[in-house]
């Protein structure tokens, strides 16, 4: 891994660099090998909470490759549900295009 500023992570879909709080965190738990969201110890991958990165992570299996594990459908269902609440018109002003 290249060195990143403190607290910064890179999206596994678009490679955007941002503070980790801006991303969804997906973890392959070290204890069980199960895939978890937000919390847990293990190998982590970060994904922008956007439709574009969700789709890339899913269709191109970027997330599965980043975690070296199959991503269960339940994880995608949970993330897809978040998309609808995360994307809010008031947040999209000043698009960073
Ligand atoms: Zn992204």
Automatic annotation (TrEMBL):
<feature type="domain" description="YlxR">
    <location>
        <begin position="9"/>
        <end position="80"/>
    </location>
</feature>
<dbReference type="InterPro" id="IPR007393">
    <property type="entry name" value="YlxR_dom"/>
</dbReference>
<dbReference type="InterPro" id="IPR037465">
    <property type="entry name" value="YlxR"/>
</dbReference>
<dbReference type="InterPro" id="IPR035931">
    <property type="entry name" value="YlxR-like_sf"/>
</dbReference>
<dbReference type="Pfam" id="PF04296">
    <property type="entry name" value="YlxR"/>
</dbReference>
<protein>
    <recommendedName>
        <fullName>YlxR domain-containing protein</fullName>
    </recommendedName>
</protein>
